[in-house]
Amino acid sequence: MSAAGEKDYQASPSPRLAPGAGRVVGQRVTRLEDAPLVRGDGMFAADVSFPRQLAMRVVRSPIAHGRLLSIDTAAARALPGVHAVWTAADVADIPPIPFRATKVRGLEPYCQPILAAGRVRYAGEPLAVVFADDAYLAEDAADLVVPDIEELPPVLDATAEPAEFLPGHSTEPTVVRKEYGDVAAAFRDAHAIVELALSVGRHSGVPLETRGAIARYDASRDLLELHGAAKKQHWNRDEIARLLGRPPAGVHLFEGHVGGGFGVRGELYPEDLLVCLAALRLRRPVKWIEDRREHMVATNHSRQQHHRIRAAVDGQGRLLAIDDVFFHDQGGYVRTHGARVVDLAAGMLPGPYRLPAYRVAGHFRLTNKTPAATYRAPGRFETTFVRERVMDAIAARLGLDRVEVRRRNLVTPAEMPHARPLDTLGTAVVLDSGDYPGLLDTALDRFGWTALQADLARRRGAGECVGAGIGFFVEKSGLGPSDGVRIAVDKTGGVELISGAASVGQGVETVLAQICAEALGIDYRRVRVVRGRTDRIEFGNGAHASRVTVMSGSATYRAALAVRAMALETAAGLLQAAASELSIVDGHVVRLADPGAPLMPLGEVARHMGPDSALMVGRTPGLSAERWFHSAHMTYPYGVHLAVVRIDRGTGEVRVERYLVANDIGRAINPMLVEGQLAGGFVQGLGGALFEEFRYDETGQPLSTTFADYLIPTLAEVPPLDLIVSEQAPSPLNPLGVKGAGEGGTNGVGAAIASAVDDALRRPGAVVSLPILPRTVHALLRT
Amino acid sequence: MHDVTLCLNGDVHRIRVEARRTLLDAIREDCGATGTHAGCEHGVCGACTVLLDGEPVRSCLMFAVQADGRELRTVEGLAKDGVLHKLQQSFIDHHALQCGYCTPGFLMLAAGLIEADPDLSDAALIDGLSANLCRCTGYANIVAAVRAVLGRAPS
Amino acid sequence: MKPAAFEYHAPRTLEEAVAVLARVAPEEGRVLAGGQTLVPAMALRLARPGHLVDINGVAGLDRIDVADGVVRIGACVRHAAVDAPGPMGRLMALMKRHIAHGPIRARGTFCGSLANADAASEWCLLAVAMDARVEVRSARGARILAVDDLLLGSMMTTLEPDEMIVAARIRLLPERARVGFHEFARRAGDFAQVMAVAVLGDDGPRLAIGSLEPRPRRLPEAEAALANDPVDLAAASRTAAAALLLPEEDAYLRALAETSVRRALEAAA
Predict the structure, then answer these.
(1) Secondary structure string (H, E, C) spanning A721-749
(2) pLDDT in tens, C195-233
(3) Does the interface ipTM go beyond 0.90?
(4) Same-domain check for residues A693 and A765
(5) A389 and A248 share a domain?
(6) Among B104, B107, B126, whose Cβ lies nearest the Cβ of A715?
């Protein structure tokens, strides 16, 4: 876009949005997204259909590890209505799925091919694909495909000695190491050392909508379209184009409605490439809708880690050093995230505490399970559990109160910004702003922590097994490097906002519209937000890592300010006034001196800036602007989780009686949506703490392949939840002061519930693994 | 193949399907009403909940042939003359949806519950709504939305 | 997760139903009543019946009749509709709340649960606790089976492929009887980890437990202990738990048994 029609307002840093609630920013407005969704007018992947489409069905490995000797596809091919059956030999020209998010070298041999060739490495790995007239028939045909696999012993324990992955490559492709300070001296001089072995179970996002991918090739325009995309459209588009040997402009991705992302959806998976390839080769639209059982073995798992952690403290319980060795159970292949979760775990483990010395070694280990990657608060749900277990252990070891130990170690506001000699996701860890002790006090006070302790003591006296727990967390958000937004006002005063962001159902349209409306002086309902499609904007970094409100929100703010300045300048000419005397209120240009008297609707200004307007001769027409926001640093939200649990001595069942999440996110663009993120995130954390686990038997057979086996919490398991959305520490790193709100609800749940279960059991350190199962608790009650 | 007549939101659909075609697939693919969603296809999540003769059922656990001649209501039938059903409006007002995938199932479940018993107790409401899974909202706002329609305070 | 193909039959009379069933039984013919267990199994292709005989259109099978101190529950009576006079009705109400969720209870049937014989079925537990009898029909004739002679083990019964359950009969409880039920499941509506029924004040204490063994069972040793000392619920619960055959001497499961029996007893006491 040319700058001829606008001044380059980007040259000077945009002013910060004034603190406090605005006309629409900070307000609990209802969502723009909702009307079609409550009417059943949504367009989710399975709702996308094209004439003449074929259904794709994936034939998956029934065993965890083996040599793939042959695949008999004859019977499937012979079935009427079957158009093609492919195995690895048919797709040998397609490279394996690449990485998008790692700086670790040497992972390439561990990439996943789109169809297994030679080896199978997890139960559920794609072996073949069938293309048929409909989904029922495709499944019939897939049942007739018979693989011959020579079983090999599976690797199921990431803490065991590494085995051979391929000749010359072990099942440990890398160890992520980070270190600063004199760790050895700290341990040598420590007053006390605590040492723990802690495990987090394998669980994942498991959105209610499974994945789906629908590809069609439009030969008339030589365009390949992929529908059902999410999260990372532009990167995925570029890679699909590269892998299929097409120019990026000849491939377009379209995100419709998305039934939950949580980290797992929108990564580039084998099925995405297979439908694209099939659409090109078969010259018919190809639709693949993952079924739930497939989802449980095909879509990214997450979380499974085992930590051996030691902490050195002084006599007051102050941390001197942490030394952590952990083992990350990656599953059968390294997928698009590379070693990102290991890197995040290693970089984020120190959390909110002052830590003079730190050493971590994250062993990235391949096993014969479904490949793992990110899930909401990746590397943080795990390490917050681990770190907060350590803090509880220090309190127990030194006979200190659990809250007091944390208070002594929290980084104070005076120490902000707090730079750690650490990096994660390729950015230096600099805690940008925060009042950690302040939020701790606010949360404890709101929860009635002191009175609660007396009440729990009384209830214990009456025979109940009850306890309270705490977890403090630091999140990260707003991962750069950049995002752009284009805003255009039409002559009716309607606004189109085109963003390279994506939406996985969290309310991106509403939030960007609010920011745009606030800056521009219009009704947010006049803003039409375009996201998740590659044909409307050249670049985009999508929706992940709690980045959209920070990155695309800041770009929106800048673009809206630029449009506003253009509008005022044009209006000033038309109204014979100085631009500095004008403003925009409710979509009308007004005088600052008399804001109640509309002078000219914004659409009228846009009309004067149209291509036929005499005003625009020699300039690029349009009341529109594109602005970018760049960021080299992440911004770090933080918060406290508090829990009360009751244990049933007869069954070992843990019931969470009530819960509080306090999260400082700098500024809430829409507090209602922030609370929604925290509440939903909390229940996912609750699942990981008490219910959800992908279990395997000793041969590597997955045991959690239905919703009857993989236990997502229902309403009946969810306790009353109190939320504190704190805005005490705006981020200095963006003009809005915002930090991401997507993951704080999940981050600390394992930690707080473990702490509460310990307290109920009156046994510090009793909980060493998640999920906390009734059987385990029952055994703890008896030993 | 079987000739089946489905009365969907008051409209008669005459479709021809295999016996194995689930009611869910028939509603979506043969009647074109894609507001009803597949979440698990094995009867646990409730995303496919529809009203069969007024009663909430999992449409993934019935075959279309079994619904021949029966009255079916889906999310598309809730709004009347362009005006949202009070449950739909309440879901918007209470931010009872995020991704919206489970929403049609929850709306039909709730509609069935409150039509069967407008004086539904709070315990029965919680028990009834625990039938369906939501992965985004944490449920509290869904309960608040339905409570509001029942004329009750949020909690 | 699309079911494999089958042929669909919708008989209108019982005679027609058993005639069809006799014809299709050799080709994996199955009865379709509520379908809330069978259809998921078909979606997962764990079940691939060649024929389904849908009995929902057979007149009269959705009836509950009470006569001569017995409640007779027809083959198409849904979980939600299961009811009986007096304490038996109260016990049924206690139990059915735990059967999955409302939409499942609106379709699934009492007799279907018996025919399916899941170890964690509430109705199988009730039937065992109360010595229920089932009416079985085939084209070859009718027979009446004690539930003990029906249930073989987890998902196994003595029904022949051409037979169907027409109704279950359960003796009513006298007004003085007190009933208790306890169930522990991981989440609301999940299959029970353990469940127990206690009936006191009838012809003698009745105790039964489900989910831990392949089929529910009465607990005669505990019943005897209770008859002997009606006050010592703890001892009876321990006796109950000790009677179970559990894999690898699982202390947790035995403790669950004790807890569940104790709570069912306390609820009934």
Answers:
(1) EEEEEECCCCCCCCCCCCCCCCCHHHHCH
(2) 999 999 988 899 999 999 999 999 999 999 999 999 999
(3) yes
(4) yes
(5) no
(6) B126
CA distance A383 to A140: 45
Domain boundary among A612, A630, A648: A630
Tens-digit pLDDT profile for residues C139-157:
999 999 999 999 999 999 9
**How many folded domains does chain C comprise?**
3
Domain hosting residue C134, numbered range:
64-171
B-facing residues of A in 207-226 (CB < 8 A) are 207-210
Distance from CA of C170 to the nearest CA of A (A): 30
pLDDT over 80 at B154, yes or no: no
- Alpha-carbon gap, residue A708 to C65, rounded angstroms: 34
Residues C238 and C258 in one domain: yes
Mutation target to probe the A interface, by most A beta carbons within 10 A, among B76, B95, B99 is: B99
The residue to which tokens 């000790």 are assigned:
C242
CB contact under 8 A, C43 and B41: yes
Cβ–Cβ contact C46 with A under 8 A: no
Q: Which residues of C1-32 are buried (b: 16+ CB within 10 A; e: fewer)?
A: bbbbebebbbbeebebbbbbbbebbeeebbbb
How would you class A69 by CB atoms within 10 Å of its CB: exposed for 0-12, middle for 13-18, buried for 19 or more?
Answer: exposed
Is residue A569 within 8 Å of A609, Cβ to Cβ? no
A775 contacts on C by Cβ (under 8 Å) = 252
Q: Which of residues 737-756 of A touch B (CB under 8 A)?
A: 745
- pLDDT tens string B39-76: 999 999 999 999 999 999 999 999 999 999 999 999 99
| C154 shares its domain with C87 | yes
Per-residue pLDDT tens over the stretch A128-173: 999 999 999 999 999 999 999 999 999 999 999 999 999 999 999 9
Q: Is the dihedral of CA A738, A743, A747, A749 positive or negative?
A: positive
> How far away is chain A from the Cα of C148, in angstroms, using its nearest Cα?
28
List of chain C residues whose C-beta atoms are within 8 Å of the C-beta of residue B102: none
Rounded to two decimals, what is the model's pTM?
Answer: 0.97
pLDDT tens-place string over residues C45-95: 999 999 999 999 999 999 999 999 999 999 999 999 999 999 999 999 999
**What total of structural domains would you count in chain A?**
3
- State whether C148 and C208 are in the same domain: no
Residues of chain B contacting residue C76, judged by C-beta atoms under 8 Å apart: none
List of domains in chain B: 2-75 (3.10.20.30), 86-149 (1.10.150.120)
Does A283 map to a domain?
yes
Q: Which residues of C, range 247-266, sit inside 8 Å of B by Cβ? A: none
Residue C143 lies in a domain: yes
Chain B's closest residue to C5, CA to CA, is: B20
Domain boundary among C42, C57, C72: C57
Cα–Cα distance, B72 to A96 (Å, whole number): 46
Would you list the DSSP string of A46-74? GG---TT-EEEEEEE-SSSSEEEEEEE-H
Name the phi and psi angles at A457, rounded to 5. Answer: -60, -40
DSSP B11-56: EEEEEEE-TT-BHHHIIIIIS--TTS--S-SSSSS-TTEEEETTEE
Mean pLDDT of chain A: 96
Q: A445: which residues sit within 8 A by CB, 6+ positions away?
A: none
C33 contacts in B (CB within 8 Å)?
none
**pLDDT reported for residue A102:** 67
Q: Report the distance separating Cα C252 and Cα A782, nearest Å.
A: 10
- As a whole number, mean pLDDT of residues A499-509 equals 92
Work out the pLDDT band at A200, boundaries 50, 70, 90. Answer: very high
CA distance A416 to A128: 54
DSSP string for A677-700: HHHHHHHHHHIIIII----B-TT-
pLDDT > 90: what percent of chain A? Answer: 94
